[in-house]
Write a structure and sequence with these properties.
Strands 1, 2, 3, 4, 5, 6 and 7 form a seven-stranded mixed beta sheet that branches. It contains 14 helices and seven strands. The longest helix has 14 residues, at 125-138. The protein is of the alpha+beta class and 305 residues long.
């Protein structure tokens, strides 16, 4: 971007919660121009907390599908745009589980899978977004019953990250697990013998291909509310939607482009989907973020760790 435009980037890395907290604390004194976050719920939180400014960009509006961006403001501006997508997948032990028994999110709560499920903490943003998606599709009452069924099906108390869930399936601690696609793709691209052994033992499912489609979360970007370099910030976001930058996302973090109609050459992503286009859900990702507070209350009621 700097080579193309001459605009210098000063980058500060932190976790998403830290970034949002710092923006709140600094207020008008914040030096931030562009904010990059990796979850729909966090982007929604930043939007509702007034930490972003709506922007108008024909480049971004033409490139990024409407369901992968924030809600339009009163003046028509958009407060954030998705830049890459990741699927929330189900992995299973090929020696113990039939793919047909885990090809929907609903089956994670089915009594036939009692004692088989590994998943990270229900309060982790990646799960909050999945649960927010399911709530949008099913309605609150059915979604809460689904969460209760998942608790009943746990093989062990939630612990660790998504890679740990995949390894637990291969090791026989549980038979099925939930993971973001890029964690599995990293292991598929690894040459370490232990990773190869894990990948050989697990199968993968893009859930709900016969209904609403697989849940997709996003990484996205926004212009900070008190940005001092607003025009350059918009230019940078527009660059991140270019084919060149979209390929960085795809090959650097094993994610699918957010830009419509752009194909990437990532061998792990192709193998995972068996070279076939898969059906993604089309609900607005902003609606998923809006459901998170309801989901947190449901998790408390059903005792989801």
């Amino acid at each position: 971007f700097t080579k193309a435009t001459g605009i210098k980037i000063n980058r500060v890395d932190a976790d998403d919660a830290g970034i949002l907290a710092r923006l709140k604390a600094e207020g008008t004194a914040s030096p931030a121009d562009v904010i990059l976050l990796v979850d729909a719920a966090r982007l929604y939180r930043g939007e509702t907390d007034g930490l972003f400014q709506p922007i108008r960009s024909k480049v971004l509006e033409d490139a990024i599908p409407a369901n992968l961006r924030g809600q339009p403001a009163a003046d028509g501006g958009i407060s954030w745009f998705g830049l890459s997508t990741r699927a929330r997948l189900i992995v299973f032990n090929k020696a113990k589980v039939q793919k047909s028994d885990v090809d929907t999110y609903e089956e994670l709560a089915d009594p036939k899978n009692k004692g088989k499920l590994c998943i990270r903490s229900g309060s982790h943003p990646y799960n909050l977004s999945l649960f927010g998606s399911v709530t949008e599709h099913m309605g609150e009452q059915k979604a809460e019953a689904w969460l209760k069924g998942m608790v009943a099906n746990l093989a062990r108390a939630p612990k660790g990250g998504d890679t740990d869930q995949i390894k637990a399936v291969a090791a026989g601690e549980c038979d099925i697990a939930v993971t973001n696609s890029y964690y599995l793709a990293r292991m598929m691209r690894s040459s370490k013998p232990e990773d190869v052994a894990v990948v050989n033992k697990v199968g993968v499912v893009f859930p709900n291909q016969q209904s609403w489609g697989t849940h997709m979360n996003i990484a996205g970007g926004a212009v900070a509310r008190h940005a001092k370099n607003q025009a350059n910030a918009v230019k940078f976001l527009e660059y991140l939607a270019s084919p060149e930058a979209q390929n960085y996302f795809a090959n650097g973090n094993n994610e699918w482009p957010a830009v419509k109609g752009l194909n990437v050459d990532n061998p792990a992503l192709k193998a995972m989907a068996q070279d076939q286009p898969f059906k993604s859900e089309t609900i607005p990702i902003s609606a998923v973020g809006a459901n998170v507070t309801k989901v947190q209350q449901m998790l408390d009621r059903v005792g989801f760790p």
